[in-house]
Design brief:
- This is tRNA(Ile)-lysidine synthase.
- ATP binds at residues 35-40.
- Residues 257-316 form the tRNA(Ile)-lysidine synthase substrate-binding domain.
- Helices cover 52% and strands 13% of the residues.
- The protein is α/β, with parallel strands linked by helices.
- A six-stranded mixed sheet has the order 3-2-1-4-6-5, with helices on both faces. Strands 7-10-9-8 form a four-stranded antiparallel sheet.
- It is elongated, with a radius of gyration of 23 Å.
Length: 326
């Protein structure tokens, strides 16, 4: 519950308010994704304060994943807290988390972001603020390293991705807890945050503490800085690849010589973007390298059939097309 007294401006409150201030729009409505945990609760309180000072509106969206007994009660308490902080409107959206083969964490995330899209459409808000912290960023990078998923995952989460805003990526999780204590707010503790069935929980509770103990403090901060540096490099390479694609792509075709003239980092991005942007197909690294071999290791091989796309080299041209009927 919110304290009736006005919280004094402690370092934690000042830091989090300042972080929120940098991402708030100049006008209109924003929503805070509130679970009731310390991260989102500190974010909600800081947003309510800063939005009031900026003369804009701030509301909240609470997503009930229906994965735990009593989840509706938890969502209801979060909604009451949001209203008590002065957030308006307050939406509680129930979702069904399906089993799409991606795992429970990914499936819940997909359902949650779909709910955010619905909230934006219903309210006309310009963005949704999420309470991801520097610690979440470090966990994301470490998981990406373990999966070998390349720079796309190692770049971590961006502070701004379309309407999704993450103002707390430079804030440690301990600071959000301190904010709540300083402001007289009582956060909810999600039992799933301690369930070792989830890979992120194992990273948080076991892997990162071991790294901190064995390598010294600051591992989490170093991982977050690595993500920031990789994001800058990756964004630059992405833009170069899209420039090549815009200049040389025509009717599903691009010259092999054009691709051969560029470094592999650009060449493979052009191939991936061609499949994604032009055909709606997402190639993994192995599939992308197989297409690139039509450029770098050409010895007369036939058409390459991948899920949702067919690529063939003919007269020095790579031709991308949708596979026809068998």
């Amino acid at each position: 519950m919110e304290s009736t007294r006005r919280p004094r401006l402690t370092p934690a409150i000042a830091d989090i308010r300042r972080a929120v201030r940098t991402l708030l729009p100049a006008e209109g409505l924003v929503l805070v994704a509130l679970s009731g945990g310390a991260d989102s609760l500190a974010l909600a309180a800081a947003t309510a304060f800063e939005a009031g000072r900026a003369g804009i509106r701030a509301g909240a969206v609470i997503v009930d994943h229906n994965l735990q007994a009593g989840s509706a009660d938890v969502a209801g308490r979060a909604a009451e807290t949001a209203s008590g902080l002065g957030l308006d409107p307050v939406l509680v959206l129930g979702v069904t988390v399906g089993d799409d083969g991606s795992g429970p964490e990914a499936a819940a995330r997909t359902s949650r972001y779909a709910a955010f899209d619905e909230a934006l459409e219903r309210t006309g808000a310009s963005g949704v603020l999420l309470g991801h912290t520097l610690d979440d960023q470090a966990e994301t990078v470490l998981l990406g390293l373990a999966r070998g998923s390349g720079p796309t995952s190692l770049r971590g989460m961006a502070a701004r991705t379309g309407p999704i805003l993450r103002p707390l990526l430079g804030i440690r999780r301990a600071e959000t807890r301190q904010f709540c204590a300083d402001a007289g707010l009582e956060p909810w503790t999600d039992p799933q945050n301690f369930d070792p069935r989830y890979a992120r929980v194992r990273v948080r509770e076991t892997v990162l503490p071991v790294l901190e103990r064995e390598l010294g403090p600051g591992v989490g901060l170093a991982l977050a800085r690595t993500a920031e540096a990789l994001r800058e490099d990756s964004d630059a390479l992405d833009e170069l690849a899209r420039t090549v694609l815009r200049a040389y792509w025509a009717d599903g075709r691009i010259a092999a010589a054009v691709l051969a003239a560029h470094p592999s980092a650009i060449r493979q991005r052009v191939i991936r973007f061609a499949a994604e942007e032009r055909h709606g197909v997402w190639l993994d690294r192995g599939q992308t390298l197989a297409v690139a071999a039509l450029v770098t290791d050409w010895h007369g091989q036939g058409a390459l059939s991948l899920p949702g796309i067919r690529v063939v080299r003919h007269d020095g041209i790579l031709i991308f097309s949708v596979p026809g009927p068998t």
